[in-house]
Amino acid sequence: MASPGSSFIIVGAGVFGLSTAIHLQHRGFKNVTIFDKQDYHKSAYSPFDGGDSASADSHKVIRSAYGPNKPLQDLANRAIGTWKQWNADSGVELFSHSGWARVTDIGRPQDVDIATFNTLKLVGLGDTQYFLNNDEDLKRARQQGWYGPRFDQFNRRERGLPLDGVFDANAGMVQADLACKYALQLAKSGGATTIFGPGQGEFTEFIRAENEPDRVIGIKTKDGKEHRADYVIVAAGPYTPQIVPELQSFVTATAGNFIFVKVPEHVRHRYEADVFPTWAWNYSGNSESGGLTGFPVDRHGNLKISYRSPKWTNPVASTSQEALISIPVTIEEIASHGGPPLSPLEETKAFIKENLPELVGEEITLAKMCWYTDTVDLQFVMDRVPSTEGLVVVTGGSGHGFKFLPVLGEYVVDVLEGKSNEYTQLWKWRTPSAEDIARIQTNTTSDERNWHKQPLASAENLKW
């Protein structure tokens, strides 16, 4: 078990790695070094300045709406409390408590919204959910100051279009790049060393103890240097299954898409968070059929819309198993291949034409793929690697990990200290069933998901 003098290498400076570093320091561990092949000091986690990861983004949803999943709901509510504290500590509005509109055109709320209401009600938060076609809820929203444009931010009722769903007043959004930058600042101020950039920050292999091949004692980086520590914690997002092949049967890389549209200055006031909150369109609670998600205008004047259905894959041969695996693709590789898939861009344009017509024809500033790490059950993996001493994995964000940035690392340290609780048990190493393995393999090899086999978006497609 980790002791006060233990040293730690963290591979990956995204949400999971940053949170781990911060909580190691909270527990008194000071010898922490974070590696990443991306130079986050240079990009500051901005997707517009070279940031190429799920953590490097403009906005993320912060919510505790988890249907009947009370453990994640409770943890998300605790994270929201810490996000508010980080606002005060940083002097920056990292987290905006502006609500989340989950909007549908199917004539009723989604099943996940009803389940979320019932679960939140158990912890006294049922009154934070306002059903958009419930007269009592709308009356309560007016009394409490929530009602207004945010209850129909696409102006559908006035245009005679169907509208239903929920406004979630317990949710909001975070400025993702600023949040990661602040978390990195916290880690460094606590004494963490950072080694970033191609070559010096890029993992190539583990160093194993002489005569003890099942014991990891450090890593080698692409510049040929060796770095040693008592524990190596791999938190490298979608690259983690490549680094730790034992994960490949139940953890895989998949991609969604981000589209950014420039909002003209003279109408930006209509897209600010207080009137145009974070929203989801036909959100089912399942990332396989979750529709679109969008955000208010950011500080640079961009409105972001994300698309994650279906999840794209990039199948390649595995070096450790017969089955194919999906691995992430960099921005440069995508550009050289021809661009990201076309369908998300076309669907986003169609959505804008129906729901945000005044933005039709405005500049599409960026269309990019965003690679995540999915597990078969969408739960995280946070545990020691079986039969390998000194090696820990923290992975499986599955598109919903960012909100837990302020609190997630606490449970990584619990694993290191040998403490068992609800969350270390929930996220422990698991053996996938034959059905799980078959499902990952089917998804990985599906022509419908293989991004190489999709019509791709060229620069011309960014035009209207």
From TrEMBL:
Domain FAD dependent oxidoreductase: 8-414
Cofactor(s) essential for the protein: FAD
Keywords on record: FAD, Flavoprotein, Oxidoreductase
Gene3D superfamilies (UniProt xref): D-Amino Acid Oxidase, subunit A, domain 2, FAD/NAD(P)-binding domain
Transmembrane region(s): none
Keyword Endoplasmic reticulum attributed: no
Origin superkingdom: Eukaryota
Classification via Pfam families: DAO
Any one GO molecular function term: sarcosine oxidase activity
Family: Belongs to the MSOX/MTOX family.
Descriptive protein name: FAD dependent oxidoreductase domain-containing protein
Native species: Clonostachys byssicola
